[in-house]
Design brief:
This protein is of the alpha/beta class. The protein has helices at about 40-60, 75-80, 130-140, 140-155, 160, 175-180, 190-200, 215-225, 230-240, 270-280, 295-305, 315-330; strands at about 5, 20-25, 60-70, 85-95, 115-120, 250-255, 285-290, 305-310. The chain has 2 domains: about 5-125 and about 240-330, Rossmann fold (3-Layer(aba) Sandwich); about 130-235, no CATH class. It contains 12 helices and 8 strands.
């Protein structure tokens, strides 16, 4: 961990699904910097975007995140490719307040000086509670199991029982189905109402329906929930990290922040640190496929993240080495 490579990042030996965050600031194609003008055509550039996307998919952990920088007028083409491999969560806009608009010279609507950053993640949209409820609580819900068994024994239909619980508009509610499927937990008052209906009205007198007391079922249900509390906590730890401690939204206003490191397309350290802290935990591993001036490396060191950084240009690779050494030698403030 914490290594720099002066090579093409596609030529790596990174294990599958081992990276927690990929923060990629690739060439934008014919915008700025000599590295932006190495392709014969935009189609050739997009072929490389596809290669990058495939490799990102291979190395990114199932609960990992991807931040992908691009230019406003061209990133949509990269998004079409990346959307095939990842779940798009946001299209962030970095707005540069210290840049000027060209009101008089433009023949279209002048954009605020800004760059885009696509934020991708995995499909783990469920909370721990939702996951445990879906996978464990609902299938083993003692209320649902017992209600379904007793209704099958009595022959009473869900539609018939629904008449006991009319909606405010006079129609039938779906509460019975929810109770039988384990989606909701029936109250004691509702449980007793169904018990009285089955035992007093229905024809099969040889049976006594819903003989179990409500508190017995409730106790079983609470025991079931407590059994899976530890599993729920573990699931939360394994979900995609996202701690929006800086209350960022999809429009992020941040100054450019000049520094002594020579590079055509530098990103601000403050913004980079915030993005890394929001999308990872301390000790997580960050892949930096396009090292540039080393902003992401410094941000990882400052925030306690591990990193693997690639930079193909020797000039910029040497800059990153110098920056890494300088950052590591800085005394900690706390």
């Amino acid at each position: 961990m914490n290594v720099l490579y002066n090579s093409n990042w596609l030529e790596n030996d990174i294990p599958d699904k081992s990276i927690n965050l990929i923060i990629a600031d690739p060439p934008y194609f014919e915008v700025k910097g000599e590295f932006d003008f190495i392709w014969k055509s935009f189609s050739d550039y997009l072929k490389d975007v596809e290669k990058w996307a495939v490799e990102c998919k291979r190395v990114l952990a199932d609960n990992g995140s991807l931040l992908w920088w691009g230019m406003d007028m061209k990133i949509a083409y990269s998004q079409i490719i990346l959307d095939k491999y990842f779940n798009l969560l946001n299209c962030l806009i970095w707005e540069k307040p210290n840049a000027l608009n060209e009101w008089e010279t433009r023949r279209n609507f002048p954009e605020k000086a800004a760059e885009r950053c696509l934020f991708y993640g995995t499909n783990d949209i469920q909370t721990g509670l939702e996951y445990i409820t879906e996978k464990y609580i609902k299938p083993n819900n003692p209320f649902a199991i017992y209600l379904k068994k007793e209704l099958n024994k009595s022959g009473v239909s869900i539609k018939e029982l629904s008449r006991l619980f009319p909606s405010k508009t006079g129609g039938l509610t779906g509460c019975i189905s929810n109770w039988v499927n384990g989606d909701n937990v029936i109250t004691e008052e509702q449980y007793l109402l169904i018990r009285n209906y089955l035992n007093n009205k229905y024809l099969k007198k040889e049976y006594s329906y819903l003989k179990k007391e409500y508190e017995e079922l409730r106790s079983q249900y609470e025991e079931l929930r407590s059994q899976y509390e530890e599993l729920r906590s573990q699931y939360e730890k394994e979900r995609r990290p996202f701690d929006n401690q800086y209350k960022l939204n999809d429009l992020i206003n941040s100054n450019r922040e000049s520094n002594e490191y020579d590079h055509d397309t530098k990103k601000p350290l403050t913004l980079t640190k915030k993005l890394i802290q929001t999308t990872t935990r301390k000790g997580d591993l960050v892949l930096i496929p396009f090292g540039g001036s080393g902003t992401e490396v410094e941000a990882c060191i400052n925030t306690g993240r591990k990193y693997i950084c690639y930079e193909i240009a020797e000039k910029h690779f040497n800059t990153i080495k110098e920056r890494e050494k300088k950052t590591l030698n800085q005394p900690e403030l706390f």
